[in-house]
Design a protein that fits this description.
Elements: E1 11-15, H1 27-41, E2 45-51, E3 60-69, E4 76-86, E5 89-95, H2 97-103, H3 123-140, E6 153-157, H4 164-172, E7 183-187, E8 195-197, H5 211-214, E9 215-221, E10 233-243, H6 244-251, E11 254-257, H7 260-267, H8 277-283, E12 285-288, H9 315-328, E13 338-342, H10 351-364, E14 368-372, H11 377-389, E15 394-397, H12 402-411, E16 414-417, H13 427-433, E17 437-441, H14 444-449, E18 456-458, H15 473-491, H16 497-508, H17 514-527, E19 550-553
Length: about 600
């Protein structure tokens, strides 16, 4: 039995591979935490569905058990569902050994593979299970006394949930179930596409007519599924692979991404679109700049800071700076510019170039630098050596705590983010909330969120032709030039009225979810065929939007019909293992042997 919602309200079902605080590797987890909460505040019934990677203390067994088809035809595997209700949102966790036994008690990149950039050998099967299980939740799991039912809109996120719109068409709409349920798909990162060996196709419970939506030839493949290799594979002849993300682009009803500039970038060519630009241009995509949960980053109330401050009491920020300098071993001096970095240690974030520029920052610009992050072992080692090479002038921190992040963000004068690409980014929003002026690459969400009055934009650090490929000496040399010039311009303002003006502009910037939530709400209404004018006016619906917050890259062809859509070419993976028999009627997928 299902019950009707109040007039004008929606049943919204988010599906994702992570959700903060239960699981997180990056910004995806924060969006799946925050956006459902904001929509629930507006009166909608909202849930998010994600894997149960651990024995979460607040997740209770619903006693609902289903069989999910996976592996050789006729095989199924048993899935359970756990549930908690938090801040107005139903959080449902898909329980299966492929999730729990892989990463129990662990976080970070262990969610997806044994190390950064490397997938588990059964990656395709794990997220085929998630997508199929998620479609059963609104029908079979009673939450708050009754299930959500068929009158829902699904909001899928990134490649891990890409098969859901395929399963929805193939196994539900074709049988008269979920006939009016649309799928919104939010892209958080174009690099990660779910490229896997073609032979997995027969194990995914997908009809042959949808094969064209998953398959395409490519010469660029991620590391093989051997659990060890971390180098991408480049071939001279195209290899036939699966691409989960492509299937979502072909079958979802509407595509979104997390900033206007990133939407334009990924449609601009096959390099920035990572071989998916063609299908993106055909379908069209809407870029909406991510918001953030602003109460956590508020210098007026931050519990991690030794004192609080605002735009009228910026001198107190200098107290935090000197205390932080002394705490981490830098020379305590408010007259010396302090440049910070917070982020994942990999080439996407441009930290490899930033490390090369540290001598220039210290010796030529007479500034200090502190870098905080974890990631690639080689980059972590370089961070650890900074203090020895530049005593009192530079420090690298590879042990993360929330307090250190807040002290660094508030204590620095500048936050340097030289990303090679950045779909949205969160660190620049955090730093602006604390009055710390960002210096950013002019790419993606960095470009959209950092205006000339509140920060500095520099040229983008150049990238190799395909993600994961080696950074050549020429690319590194050009990146160093870009970063040195950007830092030189920014630090020339330090101590001037112009710099203080930027600090105050940062503190006034509103990165909250308020207006963005309204925009998603309006689009979801349209997808459900409910014009805004027919719905009682809700607070904030008419809020104006800044041009930097939203853009629509229009489709170059007619909208996709509710029948299986056209084919496209996209990248995938190369030679690795392929799944073998999973066993009897029910199976333990994580034990799959790949033949």
């Amino acid at each position: 039995m299902t019950e009707s919602l109040p007039f004008g309200k929606m049943n919204i079902v988010f599906v994702a591979s992570e959700c903060t605080p239960w699981s997180k590797t990056g910004g995806l987890g924060d969006v799946v935490r925050d956006l459902p909460i904001e929509l629930a505040k507006r009166g909608h019934r909202v849930m998010s569905i994600q894997p149960r990677y651990d024995q979460y203390r607040d997740g209770w067994d619903t006693s609902v058990v289903i069989d999910v088809p996976i592996g050789p035809k006729g095989n199924t595997t048993e899935v359970r569902f756990f549930h908690t209700w938090a801040k107005g949102v139903d959080r449902v966790f898909v329980d299966h050994p492929v999730f729990l036994e892989k990463v129990k008690g662990k976080t970070g990149n262990k969610l997806y593979g044994p190390k950064s950039g490397v997938d588990y050998t059964d990656g395709p099967l794990r997220f085929a299970i998630l997508a199929q299980a998620a479609l059963e939740v609104p029908l079979k799991v009673s939450l708050g006394g009754f299930p959500y039912g068929e009158d829902v809109i699904f909001v899928c996120n990134d490649w891990h949930t890409s098969l859901l719109p395929v399963y929805l068409k193939a196994h539900y709409k074709s049988k008269g179930v979920y006939t009016t349920a649309p799928v919104a798909f939010i892209l958080h990162n174009i690099i990660y596409q779910g490229r896997f060996p073609y032979k997995f196709f027969d194990f995914l419970n997908i009809p042959k007519e949808f094969e064209k939506d998953l398959v395409f030839p490519t010469c660029f493949s991620p590391p093989p599924l051997d659990g060890v290799s971390d180098e991408p594979i480049v071939t001279t002849k195209p290899v036939k692979l699966l691409n989960f993300l492509q299937s979502a682009f072909e079958n979802a009803d509407k595509l979104f991404t997390v900033s206007p500039t990133f939407a334009e970038e990924i449609c601009s060519g096959e390099d920035k679109g990572v071989e998916l630009a063609k299908v993106l241009k055909e379908r069209g995509i809407q870029g909406i700049l991510n918001g953030m949960e602003v109460t956590k980053w508020n210098p007026k109330k931050d519990p991690f800071l030794p004192c609080t401050y605002d735009a009228e009491t910026l001198e107190k920020k200098m107290i935090i700076k000197t205390l932080f300098q002394a705490q981490i071993g830098l020379d305590a001096d408010t007259d010396v510019p302090l440049v910070g970095f917070v982020g994942r240690l990999d080439e996407q974030k441009g930290v490899d170039v930033l490390l090369e520029v540290v001598p220039y920052i210290v010796n030529e610009l007479k500034a200090q630098v502190v870098l905080l992050g974890t990631g690639k072992a080689t980059l972590e080692e370089k961070l650890k050596k900074m203090e020895t090479l530049f005593p009192g002038k530079a420090v690298g921190i590879t042990t993360y705590t929330e307090q250190i992040e807040h002290l660094l963000t508030a204590g620095c004068d500048y936050m340097c983010l030289p990303s090679r690409f950045e779909p949205c980014g969160l660190v620049q929003l955090n730093s602006m909330r604390m009055g710390t002026v960002p210096i950013v690459s002019s790419t993606g969400g960095l470009r959209d969120s950092v205006a000339p009055d509140s920060g500095y934009q520099m040229d983008t650090v150049p990238s190799p032709p395909f993600p994961g490929m080696k950074i050549t000496k020429e690319l590194m040399s050009r990146g160093v030039e870009v970063l040195e010039e950007g830092l030189k311009v920014a630090l020339a303002d330090f101590g001037t009225p112009a710099f203080v003006k930027k600090q105050k502009a940062c503190l006034k910037y509103d990165p909250s979810w308020d207006k963005k939530t309204v925009l998603y709400e309006q689009v979801f209404y349209k997808m459900l065929g409910k014009p805004i004018g027919d719905i009682p006016q809700l607070p904030g619906v008419s809020a104006p939007f800044d041009e930097a917050e939203v853009i629509e890259v229009p489709s170059s062809k007619k909208p996709v019909q509710p029948t299986p859509p056209p084919t496209v070419t996209v990248p995938a993976t190369i030679k690795t293992q392929v799944p073998g028999p999973i066993g009897a009627k029910t199976a333990t997928i994580q034990a799959v042997t790949v033949a």
